[in-house]
Amino acid sequence: KPKPEQVKWTRNGRFISSHPTHTIHRVSLQDAGRYTCSADNGLDKIGEQEITLNVLYPPIVQIETKAKTAEEKETVHIKCNVTANPPPVTIEWLKEGDIDFRRNGDTLVLRDVRAEDAGTYICRGINMMKPYGGKTLEREGNASVALLVRHRPGQAVITPEKPVVHVGNSVSLMCKADPPGYPDPQYRWYRDVGGEVSTTVIAQGAQYLIPKAALSSEGKYHCHASNELGNGGMASATLEIHQPPQFLAKLQSNMIKRAGEADFFVTCSAKGKPEPSITWLKDDVEITPELHRYEVKTNVDKGPNGMVTVQSMLKFTGKARPNGNDLISTDRGQYTCLYENEVNKANSTMHLKIEHEPIVLHQYNKVANDIKETAEVLCKVQSYPKPEFLWHFGTTLLSTGGHYEIITNSDGNDVYTSILKISNVRHQDYGEYHCRVSNSLNHIQVPIRLQPKGPPEKPNKLKAVELGSNYVVLSWNPGFDGGLANTKYFVSYRKIVIPNESLMTEECAAVAASGAEWMEYDCQREVPCTISPLDHHQSYVFKVKALNTKGVSEHSNEISATTKVEKIPIPLMANFDPETKILGLNIGATCLSMVAIVESVMYGDTPMAAWHIIEKVDLQVNGHDPTYREHEIKHFVANRRNNGRSLGNTLDEIPIPIEDELNPRVRVKLCLKINHEYCGEYLEADIGQSLIQEASFVELPTLIAILVCSVVAALSAVLLVMFCRCRRNQKKESVKSKEYDIDSIHPSIVAQQNQAPPPYYSASSLENKALEHSMDLAMDQNTALYASQQPTYGYHQQNAMIPQVPQNDWSNMGYVENSYSNSNNGGSVNSQDSIWQLKMSAAASNSANMIPQHNYMDQQMQQNYGYDPMTHGGYGAVDDYAPYPHLMTTASQHGGDDYHHNMRNSQNPSRQDYCSDPYASVHKPKKRMDQHMDFVAESPYHDVSGLPDPYMEQEEAKSPVQNQHLSMSYDDALAMESGYSTPNSRNRRVIHEIVV
């Protein structure tokens, strides 16, 4: 203070600026140095401050020379000067074109240099710069120097190596030496003369140019390079001159002949190098000997310089011609002789016209039109010279005007068409018209009929033009379409047995003949038509018919065709036993006639092993099941390698020592019997004792099913034994516990322990939840649970005779299978099961009372059809099941006496009465109604207390005891009849059956 009057900037002591801020816009090396800022405010004391500016720059590389020359075997030193701020971290030498060359240091030293060391060397320097407040940067600089090593040229090379040029074209040959030589060499060209290299130089320079090659230019050329230090190796190349086919004699461009002329031929001749091939064409289609209408004769003449002359003659001769050599009208057309070699093609063309009388070309001599339509009667012919047309209808000559119009045109290819148009067709217009065509050679008269539209005519000449594995392409000649353009075609086909199939088994024949009914395929209007999908390797019969709105034609001729094989299978298994020489094959189900080709690894006459055929095995296959075949390889000799032993009487008489007598290799493939070239894939056989047996044919699902059934049978047997033992023990306990109660209530009933209970048949196949549906049915008045309309439960039909059982033959019942004991149900001894057993035993012992009970039952049924478990439930030793009221009503209305008679004479039938086989499954009817009601009342899944019960309403007329029996256990019913009070819930339970 006060403010400075002057500010001064200096760099290295030199004044540079008086501005308070000094800005350097583009920093250079000259800007580096010590900067001083000084200020003076007049108080005789100058303030100043210094700062040093350090300028960073990438390496600057300099080499003392741009090129350096050295002699061979000399040591070369080349110095490289590198300056940089900061100093370089790397200085290295590289060589152009040699990525592997790398030397470190600023001096390159090459000792004992050779010609290969010549080239351009690069010195490169690298430093790492970090400006103030910036990132570290890598920078490099480089310079190059050319090292020239004085040496003579090396071996010369001519490119292209095999020069080929066409006559008249230019060709350039290049010569280059490696190493090239220094000082730069001179190139000289020479040529063979008389088979030796001439000393005459024909050209100098690295390139030899022939501006227009000729046949005389062909030969061997040489070149080499030389300089003041010597000559390099000489190179050679043979120049080949090719000439495209060049005609010596062409075909006449136009020619006219008459039909019937004999021994006509045409010729053409051309030369070329290499030898040209000759091909004759008619209308751009190659003429082949299969036509039997032409004969080609060709002569070849080889001339100098490899030139070849080819002369060819086309003779109109063949067995397909009249008299073997006469011209016919179809000979007309364009003929071409085509020459071709590696260089090019050349051809000559002739238009041949044959004079002949008119020939009809239209397909049908019929035209169909309906009344009031316009008919077009068409007459189409081929004729040379041009023909004239006249139309007649009967004896009347027709001309254009009024009802008729005649139009004649030509396609320019000697085909002429005359159309007679008849407008507003009338009945009298139907008939036969005549088209008279004439030229200078002859005339013809063609009848053409005009008729009403109608059904199509049948197709003809049906044939198969292509076969596939799942399709057949059919072609035919359509018949006259009846005048309707919307005619469609339907192909009918059916399967047949493959003709001439020698190995066709009955099973395969049945498979092939299956589906032999005719099937139909709609081809629409397509001709040819592809029929698919079809089975592979299957024979079919085909026929075709036409259809339009007027009707259907007859079928065409029938043809048969066999589809191709889609794929040859491979054997399922193969096994070869070296000891027995038995080859076992397992072939899958197939109807193909096949052979098995067996091969083994053998050495033969060479030390290299290879697969050779040793056997061909005919196969008898099965169309439904796999086929197992064992075959002895009689001529299989397991020799050690190279022992030279032969097969003996083998097919090919070749030695077959296998690779190793202890470890042979055998493989098998299946081939069609009719074509051994069409085969499937190979399967290498397992070596050792045969593991393939007939049992192996059982398929995996079948094996699993057998195993599961065996396990289930074993488990069932174990459960059956346990069930019987448990039941026997529970039966004894049940009888003892119930004996007192039953005797006290009904003293007249005496239990017999040796009697079986009534059979218990589950109404459910899985568990007792099915009883829920039984309850639903019971509550429906329209459903007769035990009537004959329920065949599932196996009840008797209304008029069927009920089998009878002797009074004391209850021991023959299916006691174990149908047991209803406590052991089976797992319940207490006071359950209803025991009561069933005791009541049944008592019934059996009191057989003397059976008839009166029957009479009482008949009266009850006739009066109110009541359902009394004491009487109808088996406790009174009567029928095991009481009929449902609906059934009883029906029975009384339809032959009630017979029915009652059967009921009186019927006792509970045993299982043997139904089935003579004691082990057969029992046809199981429904459970008893009282059990159903008991179950539902106690089941937690049904609460029917609040629902109306029509069945109960119907049973109100019954006795209280009988009605109560429908909703309470048997213990409760007995208690009520005897005056005892027994809780309704005592000993109640839900029975669950588990079916394993």
Automatic annotation (TrEMBL):
InterPro entries xref list: Cell_adhesion_signaling, FN3_dom, FN3_sf, Ig-like_dom, Ig-like_dom_sf, Ig-like_fold, Ig_sub, Ig_sub2
- Provide the topology term for how it sits in the membrane: Single-pass type I membrane protein
- What are the subcellular locations of this protein? Membrane
GO MF entries? cell adhesion molecule binding
Q: Does the keyword Cell cycle apply?
A: no
Instruction: Cite the PANTHER family for this sequence.
Output: ECHINOID, ISOFORM A-RELATED, NEPHRIN
Report the protein name in the record: Neural cell adhesion molecule l1
- Species of the source: Anopheles melas
